[in-house]
Amino acid sequence: MDTRDQLIDSARELLWERGYVGTSPKAIQQRAGAGQGSMYHHFSGKRELALAAVRRSADELLTAADSQLRGPGTAVERITAYLRREREVLRGCPVGRLTQDPEIVADPELRAPVDATLTRLRARLAEVLGEGQAAGELPAGLDPAALAATVVAVLQGGYVLARAANSPVPFDQAVSGVLALLTVH
Amino acid sequence: MDTRDQLIDSARELLWERGYVGTSPKAIQQRAGAGQGSMYHHFSGKRELALAAVRRSADELLTAADSQLRGPGTAVERITAYLRREREVLRGCPVGRLTQDPEIVADPELRAPVDATLTRLRARLAEVLGEGQAAGELPAGLDPAALAATVVAVLQGGYVLARAANSPVPFDQAVSGVLALLTVH
DNA sequence: GTCTATAATTGGATAGAC
DNA sequence: GTCTATCCAATTATAGAC
């Protein structure tokens, strides 16, 4: 991996752990093993590097979600696989985390990939949920878009509860709860 | 309101907007209309002031939730009232927001009020959900603790989706989705 | 209790040598 | 492309006068 990629990867990790305001160019350089000059050669500054990092994290999230949601199995099986897949729960979501950063949400270009990713994720889930309704696995008459928002919110909120408790237990409870509601019908 | 309270209130606002790492003592002082000396007279430093601010916000959240959850009405009515109450969705949750701050979750004393508040909120909701099951309003056989985690996660995650989209719409969708799942039975 | 002065450290970047 | 030197503002305090 070249220096430019190392910088992007280090920025991704630090944005995940500490957010945009909590991450300094110096910290990124040190983690990447690069000097000042190197970073400012490849990027105009902190913001442009963060932009590259956010875009890459956003792409990876959607790709990972697709591998469960577009995989084999019934709608309920795919949604269950997505919700139950192994996650580093206490680290939170590398994309959702960015919504808590004032400088990210205030900057249209930095917010755009976050918005696009979560919006597309909901759209993918709504498709699968719609398929489940058509197949009679899920109750008809409920808005797939609303249910998709609920499912994604359970994940994002589950991370919040887990980090507050310093334990993955409430995350797992929240996932179990929504799966039970979806499948009890 | 005296200077000490002004400082706590200003700290609460800034912690809500910018988090712990994004908030400087100077910014708190300026918002409070107080000088350096004043702040360091009342508090030993940023951390102690933040501790007072976090505790106050945590207390207020639980009090506000109780006013809906312990109010009149059936279990479903109270949960609906709680989920549908007016919120400044794009500002996010003043308590849940803190879980994204590395310095908050790494500090047991700062994390404690956040943890206690979200844990108690889930316990209150589990009680109400249990009452709803006993009254036949909600499907029996589902774990009230899991459902409570789901409901709180939908709120916390709804804020994430809304801030990403810069719109309250996905928050409202997520709430509608979980209410539909709870009441369709 | 509040004010102003001072200070060590970090943040975010520029300049120029190699 | 990468390095070191330099720069100015902000951060997080402490000291002492009033």
Question: Could you characterize what this model shows?
Answer:
Chain A is an all-alpha fold. Chain A has one domain (about 5-185): Tetracycline Repressor, domain 2. Helix content of chain A is about 70%, strand content about 0%. Chain A has 9 helices and no strands. The radius of gyration of chain A is 18 Å and the shape is elongated. The N and C termini of chain A lie far apart (about 50 Å). The interface between A and B is large, with 56 and 57 residues. Chains A, B: GO terms for molecular function: DNA binding. Chains A, B: This is DNA-binding transcriptional regulator, AcrR family. Chains A, B: Keywords: DNA-binding, Transcription, Transcription regulation. Chains A, B: InterPro entries: Homeodomain-like_sf, HTH_TetR, Tet_transcr_reg_TetR-rel_C_sf, TetR_C.
Short recap of the structure:
Chain A is an all-alpha fold and 185 residues long.
